[in-house]
Amino acid sequence: MNVLMTVMVASVLGAGPDQPRDLTVRVRTSVKRSLPFLAMGAQQWIATKKCSACHHVPVFLWSHYEAEKRNFKIDPVVVANMRRRMLSEYLAHPSFQPTPQDRAFTNSKIGLGAVYLTLGLRADKHADGRTETSLTKLLQHFRKQQAANGSWKLKSSQPPLVDGDDVTTMLILLSLRRKPQSDSDREVRRRSLKWLKTSAPRKENQPIALRVAILARYGTASASRQATRELLARQNTDGGWSQTTDRPSDALATGEALYALSRAGGITHQSAIEKAWTFLTSTQRDDGSWLVHTRNPKGHDEVISYFGTGWATVGLITSLPK
What is the DSSP string of 112-135? Predict the structure, then answer.
């Protein structure tokens, strides 16, 4: 009887008798393999480059804090050391210039690391006084750098790390407190949402996926459903998503899509999520990473693959059943 019930439930979910439970186990196994890769990569980057980097330690912290919330085992000592270093590099400068490399940065624009650091700190379920102080300083920085039209601009924008002011604006919106604590906080949010509403949506995966997450939090139910349908329509036959329509599926785009769908009510889109799980678990490399190719003709794949592995990990974690 138990076997029969398992098959019946799997049939309702649109899966074979070995799914979805076995697929969920594969997803958790995949995350358990990617977390050590992210930890080692962040530590090696610091050791060799002498820098936390906007694309390593913040992504490492975000993925590990999300993992801890879903009961994955993480190394608390490594996480604490990375957090301490990150907050020291980004927040200890007397004039608060949150960028790890260029201390002469004039603070006229926002650094990518500050955005992802905020996303990471917001996911920490053990947030302490220093975390809250840091988040307050980061929010003040974002408020100061918000353009008159309500958008935000990075000091350097390069796809696929961040591709456009709309992406920067949506990432910062997602990093803000759900409940504004002051009138100025509410005004920051109001202006950015107004700008997003009037700006033309771009037909690339990153802005489409992030709009799904934004509308799930701030938009109407109908607008959220419409954006989600657009994202689902971009899913490829292999189960993954592509950064742009002329590129193959990759872990970065697929991780972003999974993250967005989880914010839009993942159980409603379980079939698409399971196809994405299958794509990611079948394309993960032996070292726990995913290969993502750069879109910069003069660039290399190392940074993009690390960043993509971070997004794939976050996407897998957040789309798992709670």
Answer: HHHHHHHHHHHT-TT--HHHHHHH
* Buried-exposed string 242-256: b where 16+ CB fall within 10 A, e elsewhere: bbeeeeebbbbbbbb
- Please check whether residue 251 is in contact with residue 280, taking contact to mean a CB–CB distance below 8 angstroms: yes
Residues 6+ positions from 274 with CB-CB distance below 8 Å: 13, 14, 15, 19, 20, 23
Domains and CATH numbers, the chain: 33-199 (no CATH), 204-322 (1.50.10.20)
| Contacts for 304 with CB less than 8 Å, ≥ 6 apart | 160, 161, 252, 292, 293, 294, 295
Q: Name the residue type at position 206.
A: Q
Across the chain, the runs of DSSP E, i.e. the strands, are: 241-242, 249-250
- CA separation for the pair 38, 306 (Å, rounded): 7
Give the dihedral of Cα atoms 292, 112, 33, 29; nearest 10 deg: -90
Residue-wise pLDDT for 147-173, tens only, equals: 999 999 987 777 888 778 999 999 999
pTM as predicted: 0.88
Does residue 97 surpass a pLDDT of 70?
A: no
